[in-house]
Design goal:
203 residues; alpha+beta; 4-stranded mixed β-sheet; 4 strands
């Protein structure tokens, strides 16, 4: 298999952490892509017409894209242990969706600052994105610590990658204030070898 890859993409990081945790790293070749929302890598477009990483080429079917689709596929390939069963299955999917929502908002903040001319930027819009992040982190701290502290699943991986990205790009916002339980959990989860091996380069 071949993974369209960017070392700073938090969505790619989710896939990479899963590959480490399920012992599939050697089954996937990484193909680095240089893509932005306004200038996608031309080599990526045949794999994913949306021009986004990650995208996973596989021998038995069309290329998969969207990190949630890829993670579900790779988990199934490894025996299907990271999404749980019964009510935990739905909780795990909800946590993964929450984490991806955090990433969506945090990335939009970055794009606003990097891609839009300064005189066209909207501080109110940036703050609205941060408010989404903060509300989601508050909910995780208040409602989801029992699940996050349970057996490893995709919800935990997704949340950890989201927190890692918020800390990577928006550290000055001080996301940990008032979220002691979530902060402590992240400190522990971040020490896993899979998280250490996938830390984004400083950029």
């Amino acid at each position: 298999m071949k993974l369209a890859y960017s070392p700073t993409s938090p969505y790619v990081r989710k896939v990479m952490v899963l590959l480490h945790e399920t012992g599939q790293l050697d089954d996937v070749a990484l193909e680095t892509m240089h893509t932005t929302p306004v200038e996608p890598d031309s080599a990526l477009l045949p794999q994913n017409p949306l021009g986004k990483v990650p995208a996973l080429e596989r021998p038995e079917g069309p290329t998969l894209y969207d990190s949630r689709v890829i993670c579900a596929y790779l988990d199934d390939r490894a025996g299907g242990k990271l999404y749980g069963t019964g009510s935990r299955h739905w909780d795990t999917l909800t946590l993964e969706a929450t984490a991806d929502g955090i990433l969506d908002a945090a990335l939009l903040m970055v794009y606003e600052g990097r891609l839009r001319p300064e005189n066209a930027q909207m501080p109110e819009w940036i703050e609205a994105q941060w408010n989404k992040v903060d509300r989601a982190l508050t909910a995780l701290n208040a409602r989801w610590m029992s699940h996050l502290s349970g057996p490893l699943d995709m919800g935990q991986i997704a949340v950890a990658c989201a927190l890692g990205y918020v800390e990577f790009r928006h550290a000055a916002r001080g996301w940990r204030r008032g979220k002691d339980a979530l902060s402590e959990w992240f400190n522990g989860f971040e020490s896993r070898p899979s998280m250490q091996a996938t830390r984004p380069p400083e950029a």
